[in-house]
Amino acid sequence: MHAINFFNFLFLAFVALAGCSSVPRNQDLTCIASGEVERNPAQVISNHVLVPQEIYGDEVLAALDRVNEKTSAINILHFNFFTDNPGDTYPKRIANKLVEIRKRFPGIPIHVLLEGKKDLGTKGGAAERNKVTKGWLQERGIEVFDINGRNPPLSGRELGVSHTKLVQIGNEVIAGSTNLTKQSTDPSANNEMNLRIDSAAIAQKVTEYVEAVRTNPNQLVQLTAVDGDLRLLTDDLHFDALKELISSSQKGDALNLSMYQFLYRDERDAQAKEILDQLISAHQRGVAIEIFLNKAQDLATQNTEANLSVAEQLLKAGIKAVYFDSGEKISHSKYLIRTRGAERVALISSVNIYHGDFNNNHQLSWITTSTPVVDMLINYFKQQVAYDGTAISRFPLDEKTGKRYHKSADGKLVFNKPTAEKRMLRFWRGFKQDNTSLDQFRGRVNSLLIPETIEVGTGRGLQAYAPSFLPDLKPLFVPEEIAIVDYTSEEMYNAIRTTKRGRAYGPLHFAENLFARQNAHGYSSGSVVAQDYKGTVEIKTTGSAYMFGNQNLNSQEGSSVRRTILVADATEAKAIGEYIANAIQISSGLGAQGGVVLVDPKYVIWMFNLPDANASEAKVIQLDLALRQIESNSFQYFESVAVKSQDHMKTSLEPGGAITVKFDNKVKSSAENRAVIIDEIKELSPAPKAHPLKEAKNSLKPTRAAAPAKSCKDILSP
């Protein structure tokens, strides 16, 4: 019966999706002259906000600090609530806060429900460690209940558990994947994802759920509630939601899945197999799929082996964007995002893709169609992949075992050393704005664009940067400025662009007195991603770029020379290809380790790299003379410049000059990289007391385009 109710909901939800989505994120991001991004005032745009690992503990404590005499009740329903670790941990601070509230407001009911059977009697087991917290809280007057999941289990396997991770304070609900443990709440440890919700309708249904679990823990509970663009699903309602989001995806959609455990052991795991098959089918009909899985090397190794097995099957089916975390932390989050044009929907939960979680365990799941909230989650996922992830295809198979890992003597998983990431090199060419003088243009490049490029990319995947000004006297079709921008990978580049400052970086190029999107002569500014040179070139009106020689080459090392050739006839594609092949051969013979070439229908621009950082002028001249010998009327020499090296603190690009910028390109930790996203999540929804939900909702009504006759709440109410 619950499946029928769910599908009725899903049909209505997708019909009303445009009306349920919150206002789009603010696109008006401006950069001031110093390169700093102007922050717009915070605006509450939904009744819920993301609570990732980095802020979970502080969010729970802040919610408890907002308790007053009008708070209806406090309910905590958790799989693990461990207060036995030494030191000042978040679980201890939360437990102490509960005791403080009990003393200050003795009339507020406080119920703590903890898993009471999982590994009971086993040292270190969940129930054993929960017993410590239970005893401590009960001594201080707080009610604690032992609970469990479905019993007997649905198919005779392991007993059900209470896998929910819920903190409810009055009308405020915080729920998702985070356990109340030292490991799970440490801001620099796990990858986790939760929601903080401020909704009377949702809270009322959550209270009913907690009471149902408390009074009859052996039975699963099927409840739903809707408020605006958020819907609650409890216990085994999750599977149908997950399956439907994948199976209904269409060509051109994108699916992003982050999962701690994807357990398909054999045919008895029919539901996990069904999800696996649905993902493969979605890929085959043109859905873009990215998956991020846990890779714990010394904890829950069976889970990691299960994830590896599924990843192998996905890879064989052609789904290459399957990533594992670094192994230094546990990726415990469980969410799926579906993007379809401007539509956004995400399923965030405590549920793994695993038989027990689908059928026997108490769980909470959330479907959100809030555009800003899901956009934040998409950005968070991209950064998770870029800064923590390694594609499974980069762990080579061992020829003897056929596996990508082996087990050490102490039982830890040791992965084969991954192959190098494929770098992403972008060749930028820019034409100045028509009413901007060369002096104004060059001043802005030096004072704004070059510093901001370094600031945005340093430590976040930018490994080399080489900007150049072309000579004053040049043909109109030759750009005023070019730049080689070299990133460790496409994922790293995309992760930069998910931050507020990164999103502003693209439009910054077209700020006043900088580049024209298209000038009066019809020439456009933009970048081309360089491909590996394989002996042939393609002549495109938008240009083509190719890397040659040592593909691991870093232009910050050695010395470089920039060379520009004018092309007389772009139709001579074969001749241009032969010329480039000869030029690469000659430059290699004279010591060039490699470089990059931009091929435009009217010109060719090279950046050759020489291994010696102190290469003499004679070496540059020698290379220059040798290349002139293969040039003819079709390929006319225009100019050649030795590229200078400059420290990023002292960059000053001269007219007609070229530089490679020296900077520390060490990749930052994922926590540092995601700090900007965390700040934006905090901006998205300030504390409920400071911004009452009712006022926030009223302020949004005029901004919703094509609102339905009834609100989403009216349409979707169960």
Mean pLDDT: 86
Structural class: alpha+beta
Largest sheet: 9 strands, mixed
Helix content: 25-40%
Beta-strand fraction estimate: 15-25%
How many helices? The count is 21
Given as residue ranges, the uncertain stretches (5+ residues, pLDDT < 50) are 1-44, 690-718
**Rg calculated over all Cα atoms:** 29 Å
Oligomer: single chain
Distance between the termini: 13 Å
Number of extended strands: 29
Principal-axis shape equals elongated
Strand arrangement across the biggest beta sheet: 8-9-15-14-13-10-11-12-16
Concise account of the structure shown:
It contains 21 helices and 29 strands. The longest helix has 20 residues, at 438-457.
Protein model, in words:
- The protein has 718 residues and is α+β, with helices and mostly antiparallel strands.
- Helices cover 32% and strands 22% of the residues.
- The chain starts with a helix and ends with a helix.
Keywords, separated by commas or semicolons:
alpha+beta; 21 helices; 7-stranded mixed β-sheet; 9-stranded mixed β-sheet; 718 residues; elongated; disordered N terminus; 22% strand
